[in-house]
Design goal:
Layout (H helix, E strand, L loop, with lengths): L4 E5 L2 H13 L3 E7 L3 H10 L7 E4 L4 H12 L3 E5 L7 H6 L4 E5 L11 H7 L4 E8 L9 E8 L6 H21 L36 H10 L7 E5 L2 E11 L14 E5 L3 E5 L5 E9 L2 E4 H6 L10
Length: 312
């Protein structure tokens, strides 16, 4: 008889593939999500064939008591968090010793904390992945069962990479549950001088700094913010513009003229807008979101954006 798992999740793109895979294999004992996201998450789950009546809602205030009831009712062999907003109480960890497993969508120990997918893309990492570890009372610090590395392709956005991670997590969930009693975990290595990102990106993290970021760094930020954070923020004409897609660009500049970073140096209907960056680099703006809607670079030219205007 297959083992059964109680799954806690807050993400559709990262969590649903594993939820469906476990359900198809007869390994899903129960599914629970935070009540605060039920309005958005339940319709998505219903679209993939999971009825609202089969989804348990959890509150932060009563999390321990509600999880105890679910464990008593469903008698799961393990508890999986496949993205989850809250720390699991120690009392629950004690009820299922070594069987409370977190799927962390970043490579540990470098990317402990929130939103490793965003940070790995923003930082230009060539490799990301999933760290599957036993939970303890400390954030992302328990013994690791598996590390599943997954390359980050050039130009890959948060959404595209998260989709691939979600599919990998689905395969890994079956393996982890099947081998829970036999696979020896490894402690999380403690390495000095590695960046640790405990927080989700702030508005400052999501804003383009034309005077400091290279064209490559701007492209990485734009990709990391698409679609999860609604694009990378910049301003022009005292209005907000969110960049969803950019690409490196070359322009004919025989005089090697220096342009202030953020300056539109080329604008037409065919190529759209090309903007100067630091180090004599340039990027082409392909897709943006503004208060008036979503536009291509060529459409921005049609709307009147011209040479010499400056993003800030």
């Amino acid at each position: 008889m297959p083992k059964k798992v109680l799954v806690l999740s807050t993400s559709d793109i990262l969590g649903i593939p594993a939820i469906l895979k476990l359900k198809q294999q007869g390994m899903l004992a129960a599914l629970a999500i935070p009540d605060k996201i039920a309005g958005q998450f339940l319709p998505i789950l219903q679209d993939v064939g999971i009825a609202a009546a089969d989804v348990n809602l959890l509150s932060r205030k009563n999390l321990e008591a509600e999880l105890k009831k679910l464990i008593a009712a469903y008698q799961p062999d393990a508890l999986f968090t496949v993205t989850f907003s809250w720390m699991i109480p120690d009392a629950i960890l004690t009820m299922l010793p070594g069987r409370c497993i977190n799927f962390h969508f970043g490579l540990l120990p470098k990317y402990k904390g929130a939103e490793p997918v965003f940070w790995q893309i923003k930082n230009g990492d060539a490799m990301g992945g999933i760290s599957i570890h036993q939970m303890t009372g400390q954030l992302d610090n328990g013994p690791v069962l598996y590390t599943e590395e997954l390359p980050i392709y050039p130009g890959e956005t948060y959404g595209l990479y998260a989709q691939r991670l979600g599919m990998q997590a689905a395969e890994s969930a079956i393996k982890v549950l099947a081998e829970l009693d036999t696979h020896a975990p490894q402690p999380v290595a403690e390495e000095e001088d590695l960046p640790v990102f405990f927080n989700a990106p702030t508005p400052a993290d999501l804003s383009i700094n034309w005077r400091q970021q290279t064209a490559t760094e701007i492209e990485q930020l734009v990709n990391a913010a698409n679609p999860r954070y609604g694009g990378a923020l910049t301003t022009i004409r005292q209005g907000r513009v969110y960049l969803f897609e950019v690409a490196p660009a070359d322009i004919n500049n025989p005089e090697d003229q220096q342009f202030p970073p953020g300056t539109i140096v080329h604008a037409d209907l065919l190529y759209g807008l090309i903007v100067a960056c630091i180090n004599k680099q340039f990027i082409k703006i392909n897709v943006v979101s503004m208060q008036q809607g979503y536009f291509s670079g060529g459409k921005l030219f049609s709307l009147g954006f011209r040479l010499g205007e400056v993003f800030s």
